[in-house]
Amino acid sequence: MSPQRRGTLTRVPPLNLGNHQPRTPLNADQAWQVTAGRAAGTVLFFDFDGTLAPVDDDPTAVRPAPNALAAIEALAPVVQRIAIVSARPVDFLRDRLGELSGVDLYGLYGLEHSHSGGETVTEPTALPWVPTMAELADLARAELPPGTLVEFKRLSVALHWRTAPQLGGTVQQWGQAQADRLGLRVQAGRMVLELKPPVDRDKGMVIGEVVQGATGAWYFGDDVSDIKAFAALRARAEADPDFFGVCVAVANPETGQEVANAADLTIESPAALGDFLTRALTRLP
């Protein structure tokens, strides 16, 4: 099926994950109509980088699109929960999102979390890996070529080559070798390779846990790690025919096609997502 334009929204073919067939209506208006009838039991999930905020050459300079932030604040009292599920640490998310009430933060793919402004809780099995990650960050700065940006996140290390695309192969080879040496897990992303502890936490697991008891959920993401979250919504819908899940991709030139192919709907940018959510407010009770 060819994509059909709907303003800033594109309908894309749904991903068929075996038995996890999507149960989503064919356009966003219909999806919000269904959500309106179950808003009090619906969870809205958002990735941060590339979804709520445009990607920047300097990851420390990233800020959310103002209209997306305003829409989330307005939506929080309308739905059951809003959760940000990101590769960023919780402290980073809290700093960028401000004092949003009723919003849960899941950082480092779920290794950290904070509920509605509460204290940050860290997955206990990940804590012993903090010294390893610090040493790995120092080693990366010493051994990787200039142009590589090393982002130390306490429980993970992200290796960026956005400002030096020609280094992609070198950085990925080095990162994979270190992961093999130390027994770490690797998460690929948009011109970034992230090394993480061998702890069973990812976005799909977070979503799978949070949606237990919910009547519906939307997930908005832009990168390959978000495909696991999409799959978690598919699995929940397969297990419960009354559950209503919608997977939305935010387009980008690097991983956008792969993520769009796994989604029900595609939105053009974080700013367009803000407009989309603002319009949704008029459709919800």
UniProtKB/TrEMBL annotation:
Transmembrane segments: none annotated. Pfam families: Trehalose_PPase. The keyword Repeat does not apply. The keyword Lyase does not apply. SUPFAM superfamilies: HAD-like. Its cofactor is Mg(2+). One of its GO terms (biological process) is trehalose biosynthetic process. Pathway: Glycan biosynthesis; trehalose biosynthesis. It is an enzyme of class 3 (hydrolase). It catalyses: alpha,alpha-trehalose 6-phosphate + H2O = alpha,alpha-trehalose + phosphate. Keywords: Hydrolase, Magnesium, Metal-binding. Its EC number is 3.1.3.12. Residues 1-22 are annotated as: Disordered. InterPro entries: HAD-like_sf, HAD_sf, OTSB-like, Trehalose_PPase. One of its GO terms (molecular function) is metal ion binding. Gene3D superfamilies: HAD superfamily/HAD-like, Trehalose-6-phosphate phosphatase related protein, domain 2. Belongs to the trehalose phosphatase family. Removes the phosphate from trehalose 6-phosphate to produce free trehalose. This is Trehalose 6-phosphate phosphatase. It comes from Micromonospora lupini str. Lupac 08. The gene is otsB.
